[in-house]
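REQUEST FORM: STRUCTURE PREDICTION
Request ID: SP-0412
Submitted by: Lab K.M.
Chain count: 1
Length (residues): 247
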Amino acid sequence: MTEGMTLRGVGRSYRGGAGVRDLDLEVRPGEVHALVGLNGAGKSTLMKLLLGMLRPDIGTVSVGSVDIRNARPELWARVGQVVETPLAYPEFTVTQNLLAAARLRGVASAVRTTMVDDAIDGFRLADFAGNRTRTLSSGNRQRLGLAAALQHHPDFVVLDEPTSFLDPAGTILLREILRNRALAGAAVLVSSHHLDEVARIADRITVMNAGRLIGGLDPGGTELERSFFDLVLHDDEKRGAPAGRFA
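STATUS: Completed
RESULT:
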C-alpha cells in the first residue's frame, strides 16, 4: 500500500489577487476522491500544485510522503495525470503516442509493447491505433490521453474533468478503470462538475469555491446537487460576495 497525496496549508496567488488559499486535502491510498466546484473555483490550480506544475507560495505538497520540492523522476513515473488538455503529439499515431508516454515514464522496453497493446484494447482504441492523433475526434483524443496517463498502472492518479469529451460508453469504461486502480491501492483524485457521475465512483467528495475547500458531500446521499449548491451559496453569503473565479 502506497502513501497518498496531501496538501497542507497551501496557498498560491496570481496577479490581480486571484488564487487558492488555506488548502488542506488528503487523497488516501485505495480511494477515489472527487473534487467538485463551479467553473473557476480553483480545481485546476489545486491539481497543478499537487503535480508540481505550480509551486505554492505557502504550505507543503506531498506525493507518496515525499515533499514535491524533493521529488525525483522515479516518483513522477508513478503518477498518471491529465490536467486540462491531454498531452499527445498530433503527428504521432495513437500507438506511437502511447509508446512515447511509456518511455517518458521509464517503462522497460521489454514490457512496453505489451503494455501499449493492453491499453489500446482496454480503452477501445484498436480501430484508431494507426491513425495520427490530429485526425481523431475529441472523444478519442480524450481516450488516448487517459490511456497514456493510466497504462502504466500508476500509484497516484490526478484527472481534471476526465469525462468532458467522453461518450457514455467511454465514461463507464473510465469509471471501471478508476475503481480498479483504487482497489489496487492507488490514490485517485478526480475533478468534475458532474455530481451524479462522481457520486458513482467516489469514496469522498470535497467541495471547492472561490479558491478554498469549503466542505464535503456524502457520495451516497440524496439530493446531492441541492446539497452542493447550498454549500456554495452559504459560503458566498458568509464572504459577502458572489462566487469567486479562480482558474
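NOTES: The first strand starts at residue 5 and ends at 13.
Reviewed by: T.R.
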